[in-house]
Write a structure and sequence with these properties.
The chain is mainly α and 298 residues long. 70% of the residues lie in helices and 1% in strands. A hairpin with a 2-residue loop joins strand 1 and strand 2.
């Protein structure tokens, strides 16, 4: 199942926009060092949900902003996400051979080239976000760079991955598990919404409401991931099903059970929708993405 078919036409159009923007900004596969560039393009353009670019666009749309400058933020968050997947799949990390229904980057290009591709994608993300025209003004641009940088580091994805590695074989409490995923998965989702909102000139009160939305969506996405790891099939979800259980990694179903996980998912969706309720019809795309994060099949 193509994950994009679970979304409505407006979001599908934005996925197409993101795909074109990514293709245009990634280095040409024939330019030296060609093997590195091919690995970068393989890691990014091989399908995917594009949830993070969609959140950039949807947050900005909710605040009345829609112009080409948003593409830089949309690409930046997706490049960071792609680099994190390349590194997470390495044998030293999660050791996975399948991603998005294809062999992982290190299986195709080797571990050394996969590491370099991830490094280069991270650098390119910040290059794009720092480029002229990526932000409405210099002060906002600095805030956007800070938001993305914080989402990547020890208080975000890198820290979350460290907690994840340390948690293998341990029994975590529910708050510990939620904190781990708030860093590993949720931080970049929050950053995506922040970038879109900042680009649209959101005031602090609106930023706070959108951050509540993004925090709930980020955790809901992970709860759904954990449920799919139990119930999904590898050919459908595009990665190795049952791998978390086999690796003795803590998940929501392993700690609170499937029924309670589903209830937590419903509660998080309600929280996200409540946070954007004041936006009215302008928040429609954000609402659709909240439902998608909680109900997707892959």
């Amino acid at each position: 199942m193509n994950p994009n078919t679970e979304l409505g036409p407006a979001l599908q159009a934005l996925i197409h926009r993101a795909e074109q923007a990514l293709d245009a900004r990634l280095p040409n596969a024939e330019r030296s060092p060609a093997e590195l560039h091919r690995a970068m393009r393989y890691a990014v353009l091989g399908g995917g949900k594009r949830l993070r670019p969609l959140l950039v666009y949807a947050a900005a749309h909710a605040l009345g902003r829609d112009d080409a400058s948003l593409d830089a933020s949309a690409c930046a968050v997706e490049l960071i996400h792609a680099y994190s997947l390349v590194h997470d799949d390495l044998p030293a990390m999660d050791d996975d051979a399948l991603r998005r229904g294809r062999p992982t980057c290190h299986i195709v290009f080797g571990e050394a080239m996969a590491i370099l591709a991830g490094d280069a994608l991270q650098a390119l993300a910040f290059e794009l976000l720092a480029a002229p025209g990526a932000a409405p003004d210099a002060t906002t641009g600095m805030r956007m760079l800070h938001a993305l940088g914080r989402a990547c580091g020890a208080d975000g994805m890198a820290g979350g991955q460290a907690l994840d590695l340390a948690a293998v074989g341990r029994t975590l409490t529910l708050p510990e598990l939620e904190h781990m995923h708030a860093c590993k998965t949720g931080a970049l989702i929050r950053a995506a919404v922040q970038l879109g909102a900042l680009a649209a000139g959101a005031e602090d009160a609106v930023l706070a409401a959108l951050d509540r939305y993004a925090t709930a969506v980020g955790l809901a996405f992970q709860v759904r991931d954990d449920i799919l790891d139990v119930e999904g099939e590898s050919t459908v979800i595009g990665k190795t099903a049952g791998k978390d259980a086999a690796a003795d990694k803590p998940t929501f179903p392993s700690i609170i059970g499937l029924d309670a996980s589903r209830a937590r998912l419903a509660g998080l969706t309600a929280t996200a929708l409540d946070a954007i309720a004041p936006l009215g019809p302008r928040g429609e795309l954000l609402g659709e993405l909240a439902h998608y994060a909680a109900q997707r099949h892959r």
